[in-house]
Fold:
Amino acid sequence: MGRTIFLLPVCALFLTAQTADDLFDDRVMHEVRIRINPADWRKLKENYLDNTYYACNFEWRGKQVENVGIRSRGKGSRSGVKPGLRVDFNRFEADQHFLGLKSVQLKNLVQDASMLQDRLGMLVLARAGVPTPRVAHARLFVNGEYAGVYSLTESIDKDFLKRTWGENNGYLYKFEVPPQPWHFDYLGPDPSRYSPVPFEPKTHEKDPDPAPLAAMMRAISLSPDAEFVSAVSEYLDLRRYVIQVAVETFLSDVDGILSPNNFYLYRFERRKRSAFIAWDKDMAFGWPENTIWLQTEENVLMRRCLRVPELRRLFFETLHLAAAITGTHGGWLFQEAARAYEQIRPSVLEDRMKICPNGQNVMASCTNERFEAAVASLARFIELRGEYVDGEAAAAGYTQTDDAPHLSGAGGTNSGAPAVLFGDGFTEGVSVWVNGFRAEVDSISLHEIWFRVPPKAQPGANPVTVIRDGVPSNTVTLEVTEG
Structure:
């Protein structure tokens, strides 16, 4: 595997401002330095399955905060060789913050040999409107020694809630996989069957009020078919749920919300309704030919959603939309992956602590060849996934509705120049997507859209899709020329 996976220019950007936005700025490779008593660091690594906190100093871009608490973090990713770290700035100093944050996660990226999947998965989900944490890569140094490549990941906490919804006094839960298989089943009216397991309270820990969880599961499992949507909609926005499931399905995430695993649930202040928050996408991008039906029948909530014609259509439409906003070879996601790859590659090659699953799915030392091979697999996924998903949706009967925008052709040109789409159903407010890049629209008539070819569109055949009110058109090809 050579370095010709992504043939794109890469530029570096250095920003001097010191804010939380800058901490999670993925345009730069960050550097984090931790100073800790060597004996404590040794204990943390030896007892990596424990949640014992140790005091340390945390530094980023010359800004240092002292007496910070760190502990081992993760589930299957826990490691005594390259420990993932939860950093609590206020663990030992109640009023202490760092750039306005109470905590941050330093993920060790050991479940993904490419070290790119979580970051890219969150980018795609965020682009589709799903609440996600911010993610950037960093070089970690502990007591002056290079400890490897990590991701700086935003914690799902009150700071996140305030940034996302402008409120944070509702009820936040993190889903923890229970001992027995559970797929949004109703376990009876006892609220203690739902919290603290599988819904572990992260706010209002002393009074987590799990009764609405029991009521929600009852509505999901027991409401009559004719009343399912109205009953469950008291507790969830079903459209937002189906959109998140569809995007995670597009990403071939086998360890996501359908599993169920890796999500948070937030119940809004003084309301019964909750929203899902995505978490940990390091097991996405696994296989481009993964079926779109994976885990949909086992999960009670999704199984019932797919029996509702409007929600079933939304599932298909969102799969097609995900293909449109990500693109294929040379497109938006391909270029994002190329940029991230070039950014982290020198640090990954230098990372002697990196580990990843071997051929038997056992954690072992990860070679540079394994890293390069994983990046190549990721590139292949991006190239093939959209076509496969669209094909499987079509085989299941998905077709456009009569009132959806329809494309009949496109007039090609070079990057940055005017181009035209022909078809019908065009109205003000439509957006044009060229291989995952949103184009600047110049004018719209009933049968034509004039737009500018995105500057980053690569020469050759580029898929083009129009989206109106969340509904995608069919896809046509635009030939982009050099010049």
Q: What stands out?
A: Confidence is low (pLDDT under 50) at residues 7-15.
